[in-house]
Design brief:
It is a single chain. By secondary structure, the chain is of the alpha/beta class. The protein is 39% helix and 20% strand. It has 2 domains: 58 residues, no CATH class; 193 residues, Rossmann fold. The structure holds S-adenosylmethionine.
């Protein structure tokens, strides 16, 4: 390990950061790319931001998601590794749809991580991504260019499906993927309040029970899905029973699946629109 790496790692370790040497490595690499001539000072400044509690992805400005390098910018949630379960499950649903040129909606797209990764891994897919906030739409558009999928990914803005009204997608969409805000307002005011220190409230605030957006999306996705099309959500720990109930109540979905991660926790719920 060179002396800069040791210095940064020691700084991070002293601040209680658990994977100090791994993070130090990523900071030094990012500094070398950002400022080759001046990378030592840039790496030290990055380490100070990290020590102040800024998430690593914001500090270095990049994150890898489903093997795809993405730009990370404040105003949009930094993509989480846990969301890869939703992305890979969506890819399976797209393959299973049998469509040659599948049409996908990424609702609540944030940085555009799901839209860009799906387009990258499925080269004939066309994706419409949408988010409410200016910050997310701006970062998602940067990622569409960065990943090189601007010919197949459109980024729109609006309250849920309002931004997608003018694309002729009604009844034609094979898969809707959605990682909504799903933390209850009570938790955000208490034990999960730390989340709001650096990332936007819109990324987390799921209303009084953490289910407000899912409750709307199960209904509002229906006019866009083709018969047999699939809606998939990432969910919070322990939400599977309530989210399954939201699908059941609408009565227009079948084949409702609960998908668990490697630790056995259900983090994705999907349902297929009846009629095919
Ligand atoms: C948990 S983040 C997910 C971001 C991204 N898809 C990901 O996987 O990292 C939830 C996103 O929902 C967006 N959002 C919240 N309310 C919305 C609404 N009413 N309409 C559209 N997007 C909304 C937020 O701005 C935020 O980007």
């Amino acid at each position: 390990m060179n002396s800069l790496l040791i210095e940064i790692s020691t700084t991070l370790d002293g601040a209680g950061i658990s994977q100090a040497s791994r993070e130090a490595d990523r900071i030094v690499q990012a500094a070398k790319v950002a400022a080759p001539a001046d990378h030592e000072d840039v790496a030290r400044a990055m380490a100070q931001r990290r020590v102040a509690g800024v998430p690593l992805a914001y500090v270095i400005g990049h994150e890898t998601f489903m093997g795809v390098d993405l730009v990370v910018g404040e105003g949009a949630l930094a993509p989480r590794e846990e969301t890869e379960l939703l992305g890979y499950t969506a890819l399976e649903a797209i393959r299973a749809s049998g469509a040659d040129s599948p049409k996908i909606i990424d609702m609540c797209c944030g940085s555009g991580n799901l839209a860009c990764a799906i387009a990258h891994h499925f080269p004939t897919a066309k994706v419409w991504a949408s988010d409410l906030t200016d910050g997310c739409v701006s970062v998602a558009r940067r990622n569409v260019m960065h990943v090189g999928v601007s010919d197949r990914v459109v980024v729109a803005q609006g309250d849920l499906f309002a931004g997608l009204a003018d694309f002729g997608l009604e009844g034609a969409v094979d898969v809707v993927v959605c990682n909504p805000p799903y933390i209850s307002q009570g938790k955000l005011a208490t034990d999960r309040a730390v989340l709001l220190e650096h990332e936007p409230r819109e990324a987390f605030d799921g209303g009084p029970y953490g289910l407000s957006i899912q409750q709307r999306v199960v209904k509002e996705a229906l006019p866009f899905l083709r018969p047999g099309g699939t809606l998939l959500f990432e969910i919070g720990l322990g939400q599977e029973r309530q989210v399954k109930m939201l699908f059941d109540r609408v009565k227009e979905y079948e084949d409702i699946r609960l998908i668990a991660n490697a630790a056995g926790e259900v983090r994705v719920v999907s349902g297929r629109k009846r009629g095919n």
